[in-house]
Amino acid sequence: MYQEIDLNKIDIHAEPPVEEPARQYYFMARCKEWVKDFEQKNGRLPSFCVTTFGCQMNARDSEKLRGILKEIGYVEEAEDKADFVIYNTCTVRENANTRVYGRLGQLKPLKKKNPHMMIGLCGCMMQEPEVVEKLKKSYRFVDIIFGTHNIYKFAELVATRLESERMVIDIWKNTDKIVENLPNQRKYSFKSGINIMFGCNNFCSYCIVPYVRGRERSRDPQAIIQEIRRLVADGVSEVMLLGQNVNSYGKTLNTPMTFAKLLREIEKIDGLLRIRFMTSHPKDLSDELIEVMGNSQKICKHLHLPVQSGSTDILAKMNRRYTKEQYLELVEKLRKAVPDISLTTDIIVGFPGETEADFEETLDVVRKVRYDSAFTFIYSKRTGTPAAVMENQVSEEVIKNRFDRLLREVQTIAAEACAVHEGTVQEVLVEDICSHDPKMVTGRLGNNLLVHFYGGQELIGQYVEVKLTECRGFYYIGEMAGKAS
Ligand code: SAH
Ligand code: SF4
Ligand code: F3S
Question: Among 209, 84, 77, which Cα is nearest to 144's?
């Protein structure tokens, strides 16, 4: 994690250091000089807004961008007023790209009005060559474009842009580098995401992530533990360990280590109260991990276990490397070891070649597992993935019909699964003021469900006992029953 460093002591007229992260501190110091200059000329500090699309990996990356900008001296501002707007993009489905182009179109007139304004684009979408070509051609007003592998170089790229006034584009195809000790600005003071690994080696046939996030690499366990210790000292009590496939953590380390072993080590950290992780690939979910989950006091009783499809044929075409039966066995084992575990999943509808019978298998899994919630996606063709050129792409009409049926099934079951806790008293971590009623706060149960109850700002970050009085489908209304012990 970030060690406080005095940027004012860095000689910005010397040659930049070659080593990381010293090189980035040097560029932060240079940017800071520019910010001072801006302040003198304009009588105010420059402002920024980072908007995140996509998954929690991106959310964590955005915290790193925010950390660097704050260190330089920028202040956070709403997007329509900010001097520096950054979109951290996702490309997992086609509509993710469409949204970014739409938003960019809206930024153009803002940039015309504000001569200071800069626009930065980063994240997964930038790893696609045709996207960068399109931006170069039709979106010349963008200032900085970089990808997922060199996000740690953000300060250097900003410095280059501030000092050169030209479009800065820096995209790497891949990397094996992990740069530690850079600043980051957490969204919540009491909980934090932690990257434990980067990239993905699974190449599920529909998925673009391995192409835009590169090969799987795990962070050194000591670096992870040290980061968590520092976070705990800084007020964090809940961590979310992040990776595209956390169950294969440690395989690429010089001294290989299992994810279960890492969890055991993290569990020992005093002051840490809740451990979450995502995402778990079913094919790598070991008995050792199930045992650790069963015996843990801190690992939350919630597992996100994407099934994608219930049909063994489709799963094979998806290159998921498990069968319907293996998945269901896994669920059974988990429920035995952790009886009240909440299970959530991702499901894709309309993968090429999906027949009505295949789809029925998916419904069957949904009915058997009874997920607490499920993210359902319409299959989106991603150019460059094997599935994009498969025959028998399913028609839109058929997909729409299946999607609606799936959603109904998932929602009915989830509402029933959620309601079983009605009337119980549970420990929740209070996260925010409720977005619908400012007299209420929103807390999260260990099993990931949300509960809204009357309470004030002072409860944020605290653990309290809450009686779940009324289930409203996917969340609860509750009453505070006391402070947690
Ligand atoms: N690494 C995670 C998921 C990453 S992407 C995992 O393996 O589960 C998040 C979800 O997006 C996936 O679980 C999948 O359900 C969905 N997804 C990925 N590619 C997709 C595509 N081409 N079309 C529709 N949904 C997709
Ligand atoms: Fe994509 Fe599969 Fe990797 Fe998840 S495990 S990121 S779905 S390739
Ligand atoms: Fe999207 Fe990249 Fe995450 S493609 S889902 S932001 S890894």
Answer: 84
Classify residue 15 by its DSSP letter. Answer: P
Omega cis (within 30) before 21: yes
Q: Is the alpha carbon torsion for 81, 85, 91, 92 positive or negative?
A: negative
| pLDDT one-digit tens code per residue, 33-90 | 999 999 999 999 999 999 999 999 999 999 999 999 999 999 999 999 999 999 999 9
Question: Would the CA dihedral through 483, 418, 192, 280 be positive or negative?
Answer: positive
- Are 122 and 88 in contact by the 8 Å Cβ rule? The answer is yes
Rounded Cα gap, residues 120 and 31, in angstroms: 15
Q: CB within 8 A of 194, min separation 6: which ones?
A: 60, 224, 227, 228, 231, 239, 240, 241, 242
Closest CA to 342 of 412, 447, 426: 447
pLDDT tens per residue, range 142-185: 999 999 999 999 999 999 999 887 899 999 998 888 888 888 89
- Local structure of 483: helix, strand or coil: strand
Question: Residue 279: is the preceding peptide bond cis (ω within 30°)?
Answer: yes
> Is there an atom of ligand 3 within 6 Å of 207 CB?
no
Nearest atom of ligand 3 to the alpha carbon of 53 = 6
Q: Which atom of ligand 2 is nearest to the CA of 346?
A: 7
Token pair belonging to 272: 């840490």
Rounded Cα distance, 279 and 374, in Å: 14
Task: Tell the residue nearest (CA) to atom 4 of ligand 2.
Answer: 244
What separation in Å is there between the alpha carbon of 441 and the centre of ligand 1? 32
**Rounded CA separation 90/93 (Å):** 8
Say how far apart CA 114 and CA 84 lie, in whole Å.
10
| Residue nearest atom 19 of ligand 1, based on CA coordinates | 207
Distance CA 303, CA 9 (A): 46
State how far the Cα of 466 lies from the Cα of 428, in Å rounded to an integer.
Answer: 7
Closest CA to 64 of 136, 126, 146: 146
